[in-house]
Amino acid sequence: MFSNIDWNVIIRSLPYLFLDGMRFTIMLTLMATAGGIVIGTLLALARLSNIPGLSHVAGAYVNLIRSMPLVLVIFWFFFLVPYIGQWLTGASRPIQVGAFLSALVTFTLFEAAYFCEIMRAGIQSIPRGQVQAAQALGMTYWTSMKDIILPQAFRNMLPVLLTQTIILFQDTSLVYVISVTDFLGAASKVAQRDGRLVEMYLFAAIVYFVISLAASYGVRRLQRRIAIIR
Amino acid sequence: MITITNVSKWYGKVQVLNNCSANVAKGEVVVVCGPSGSGKSTLIKCVNGLEPFEQGIITVDGISVGDPDTNLPKLRARIGMVFQHFELFPHLSVMDNLTLAQVKVLGRDPKSAAEKGMKLLERVGLNAHAAKYPGQLSGGQQQRVAIARALAMDPIAMLFDEPTSALDPEMINEVLDVMIRLAKDGMTMIVVTHEMGFARKVANRVVFMDRGEIVEDAPTADFFGKPRSERAQLFLSKILQH
C-alpha cells in the first residue's frame, strides 16, 4: 500500500501548510480563546448574579449555543454577520466582514458559552467565606471579583480552560465549510491538487496529534507550577 | 457604638433570630456564647451586614446597617471581622493579604500600606512570614494574620466569629493572647466564642444566646457567678465541667 508513497509532497508544501494554514489556525485559536474567556467570564458573572432577568438571559444564550452543532453556527454567522452589521450601522447593503473576521466572531461567541460554564464552576468552587472576607474588608462586588474570586477561580479552572482551548484548536478545522484555508484546509488543497490524499491527511493527523499532545503535557506541568498552596 | 434593637431574621420559614437587642459601648468587650445553632454567628454577621435581617435596627457608629441607602462596603471597611476558618486569600502572600484592602478600599499608597502591614505583623509576632503564602502557615499563625489584616484597616470595632473553634488546642492560646492584648488596648470587640477563660479575663459583659434569642446579657462576674436563667445555668454547667 505504501509502495507509491511520495513523502516529498509534504516537504514541498511545508511553507504553505505552516505559514498560511497553521498561522491561521493558531491565530484563530488564540484570539477566539482570549475573547471567549473574557465574554465567558462576563456571562458567568451574569448567570450567577441576583439581578432579575440577567441570569436567565445569560443562561438562555449558553444553552442555545451549547445545543447547536458548531458547523451550523459557523454557517449561520457567515451568512448572518453581514446583515447584523448592516442593521447595527444602518448601512444600505450587508457589510462584508471577510471570512476570518466571521470565523473569529463565531468561534469567540461559541466558545464563550463553554468558557462561561467553566468559569461558573470555578467561581462556585470558591468558598463563600472568601466572598464574605472580601466584603468584610469593605471591597465592592467588582473589587472582590477582580482581586479575590476570579484569580482563584481562574487558577482552579486553568487546566479545564486549556483543555477546552486544545479542543478549540482542533475544532477550528471546521472553517472549511466557509472556504477558509486553515491548516487542514491547506493540507486538503495540496492533497486534491497533487492527488496525494494519504500522505497529506496522514501528515495533518500527525501534526494535530503532536501539537495537542504537547499542549496537554504543558497544561499538566503548568498545573503543578501554579497550584495554590492550601 | 454598636446598637442592636429588636432584630429578627428568618431563613425561609425558620426563624433564626428572635427579637435580639444588645448594645456595645466604645471600648467594651462583649462575649457572645451559647449552644451551637443558637444564632450567635448569624447575629454577629448581621452587625456588618454580611447577613441581611428582616426586622429591627442595627447601628454602628450611628449608621444604620439595614438601611438600603447605607453604603455597606464603606461601613464594613471600618469594622474588622475575623472568621472561624481564617479566610485569608490563599493566592496572595501574607503581606499582600494585609495590603490589598488598604490600597484598593482605603486608597492608601502601596508603600505606606506595606509599612502598616509590617508593623501589624510584628505586633502578632509573624514579621518573619511576610513573604509566605497562607497555606504555608499553621492555623494559629493564619488566624493571627487574619487579625492583623482586619486591624490594617484601622477599624473602630472588631467582630470575632468563633476565632479559635477551628484551631488545634495548642494553637488556641497564641490567638487568644493577641485578642487579649487588643482588648487591653481598648478595642471595641464582639467575640463569639466558647473560650470561657477568655470571657472571664477580658469581657465586660457576656451575652448568652439560645434558639435565636438573647436569653441573658450580664456583666461578666454576674454571668459566671449567678446566671439568672436556667438555660444559661445548664449551658455553663455543661461546658465548665472539666
What can you see in these coordinates?
The complex is a heterodimer of chains A (230) and B (242). Chain A is built from 8 helices and no strands. In chain A, 79% of the residues lie in helices and 0% in strands. With 230 residues, chain A is mainly α. The N and C termini of chain A lie far apart (57 Å). By secondary structure, chain B is α/β, with parallel strands linked by helices. Chain B has 2 domains: 1-78 and 157-242, P-loop containing nucleotide triphosphate hydrolases (Rossmann fold); 86-155, no CATH class. Chain B is built from 9 helices and 10 strands. Chain B has helices at 40-47, 72-76, 94-104, 110-123, 139-151, 169-184, 196-202, 220-225, 230-239, and strands at 2-11, 14-24, 29-33, 55-60, 63-64, 79-82, 157-161, 189-192, 205-210, 213-219. In chain B, the strands form 2 sheets. Chain B has a 6-stranded mixed beta sheet, sandwiched between helices. A 4-stranded antiparallel beta sheet of chain B has the order 2-1-4-5, covered by helices on one side. Chain B is globular and about 55 Å long. Chain B starts with a strand and ends with a helix. Classes of the chains: A mainly alpha (230), B alpha/beta (242). The interface between A and B is medium-sized, with 21 and 31 residues.
